[in-house]
Write a structure and sequence with these properties.
By secondary structure, the chain is of the alpha+beta class. The protein folds into 2 domains: 52 residues; 129 residues, Beta Barrel (Lipocalin), CATH 2.40.128. It contains 2 helices and 8 strands, in the order H-H-E-E-E-E-E-E-E-E. It has an 8-stranded antiparallel barrel with strand order 1-2-3-4-5-6-7-8. Strand 2 and strand 3 form a beta hairpin. The mean pLDDT is 91.
């Protein structure tokens, strides 16, 4: 189990749950002469909640983050300065797929080009999450790696994204900004109207 495996749990709630489960297990073991490892069973319960049950109605209250998972589709507005110093801008269709458990969040991003082809995917490396100042929404901050595509002469590069997640009760929305260290031309831009469209997190990118 990683050192940060429990980082998305509400600490006080987790401690209380572990304490109550421990009391129940010690009572069963001592009064019914059943031999088992209390620590082992608690670990199994925590793993099951974290990996399988984290977003279910009862168990989601154990976590301080929201359920970001799903497929989002919207628009990427990009800009860059070309080789002769001119600013270039445009809009492209953009897709983000968020896979999530109670301990890990993975984001895959893909852009659909004007000719209908897909860019090489970007995947997050690391993740920092904080509530907005009003505690209504969340900010996701992460670096990403794009492996590039030799056929498209698209070089590998890193970048950073700062994403705002809004769950207004009617749907989930993402907005935010990105910048990259792509060579020879750095790019930057923002995301517009990235709306949750389904729970399907499968893709063939």
């Amino acid at each position: 189990m990683k050192n940060d495996y429990l980082k998305y749990y509400k600490p006080k709630v987790l401690i209380g749950i572990v304490f109550l489960i421990s009391l129940a297990l010690y009572y069963v073991r001592d009064n019914f002469s059943i031999t088992f490892s209390v620590l082992g069973i608690i670990t199994l319960i925590i793993i099951t909640i974290t990996e399988k049950l984290w977003n279910k109605k009862i168990f989601k209250h154990l976590f301080w983050i929201d359920d970001f998972s799903g497929r989002y589709e919207g628009t990427l507005i990009y800009q860059y300065i070309d080789e002769v110093g001119e600013m270039k801008t445009g809009e492209l269709e953009h897709i983000k797929i968020i896979k999530q458990t109670g301990s890990q969040i993975d984001i895959t991003s893909i852009t659909k080009k004007d000719d209908g082809s897909l860019s090489s995917p970007s995947t997050n490396k690391g993740m920092y999450i904080e509530p907005t100042p009003d505690d209504q929404h969340f900010i996701l901050i992460y670096s990403y790696l794009n492996d590039g595509c030799l056929e498209q002469e698209f070089p590998p590069h890193y970048g950073t994204e700062v994403i705002k997640f809004i769950n207004n009760g009617k749907g989930k929305l993402l907005s935010g900004e990105y910048n990259s260290d792509r060579r020879p031309i750095q790019t930057r831009g923002k995301f517009k109207n990235l709306k949750w469209v389904s729970n399907n997190t499968n893709h063939d990118y």
